[in-house]
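=== Structure Prediction Worksheet ===
Name of assembly: unnamed complex
Input type: mixed (protein and possibly other molecules)
Chain count: two
Listed entries:
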Amino acid sequence: MGIKLQAGMITLLVSMSFVANALAGDINLSAAASLKEVLNDLGEGYTRTHAGVNVLRNFGGSGALAKQIENGAPADIFISAGQDWLDYLVGKKLIDKASIGILARNVLVFVGDGRVKVNGMQDLPKLKRIAIGSPKSVPAGEYAMQAMEHAFLTPDIARKLVMAKDVRACLMYAERGEVDGAFVYKTDTRLVKRARTMFTVPQGLYSPISYPMGLTPAGAQKKDAVVFYRYLQSAPARKVLARYGFILGKE
Amino acid sequence: MSIFSPTDLDAIGLSTKVALVATLVSLPFGFVMAYVMTFRRFRGKVLLEVAVNLPLTLPPVVIGYLLLLLLGKNGWLGHLLDQAGIRIIFTWQAAVVASAVVGFPLLVRSIRIGMESIDQRLIHASRTLGARWYDTLFTVIVPLSLQGILAGSSLMFARSLGEFGATIIVAGNIPGVTQTIPLAIFDYVNSPDGERMALALCMTAIVLSLLVLFLHEHFGRKLARRD
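=== Predicted Assembly ===
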């Protein structure tokens, strides 16, 4: 009797939670860490104008997010800071191929506290500690590694690289002065107070940075998610992206 | 062991080194602390006890962050060290500091258990027979609490091997320099194509922990048998 009652209660609770989920109109968004502020802005703005819709945002290194999605984390929209991790999920049939688009573009810069003068890639060997996103899962780190390889810096510099879990952790290290400098996106530098941009990494040294995005199979089924996804590519959303310093291609 | 890359092997070596150094450095302090808590009575003992045990219950990330604030370039201690040309943050020594703080309560607890099991009459007898306090310490207390010291050291060593939360904040994550086994695993876990390597390192961590814990059990049993 007691067990039956318990089982009944559990069934009731579980089914209630499913109903609640379905009613809430939650959109699960997994996005690269560098998009945090702009997507908070866009998500909150959207929630205000669309009653009953809630944009749940999950930020992190693109590789880590891809792995979460691969392991069944709830996600309707995935925005990566690099092509690799989107392609990875497409390969696993976890991104709806027809939905793929580009949210925006970005540029790699080097920030530091200015105690050691660095004007370009050739000055980096002068530094003791440099933060980059861990290239295994953070696109900003991959771009940084590319740039250092193309500037022929890699072998002697490898033991100076602090591997951060996402690009924002890099920025924090540079801002606190714990490293002499860090590779981050140009849009990230809007957040720093003490550190400043030492130089913009020459575009020829790394592949162009774009934020490809797509709907997951679950997201493609969800009307709210599809509408929000379209909104991200609309003129008002692009205006907000531009305000945060992101580079926008042709429509 | 061809499955491991050179930086993974570095991580295994570094973890062992950090755990060993953290344990050895903490040992004298742990011993003194246990001695004070076991044999001395004074006001505010409870406060000291709580302070020593605090790292046991605090989230390691809190300890890491507080250490960063303390030892970082702009921290009050880090600032002084910086002027003396010493850097701790993002070096392997920072991993030692993190492990030492987190593992210290375990060390003190085990040594105390060893000391509390010493027959008080032996200590009194040695004193009445004319032993100075340090004679009593080295000829009675240290030998009789040796099992507790060994048990505590092995437990702290094991805890240090697994230290992650505080370490990733203060030691950074520099492959081959400050990347310990848990940090290397974290790197692989975050990467979709790192599954195999993450599991290989997990196995290494499990084997190391099992070895050390068996050792710990061995010392612990000897301690229990003596009563």
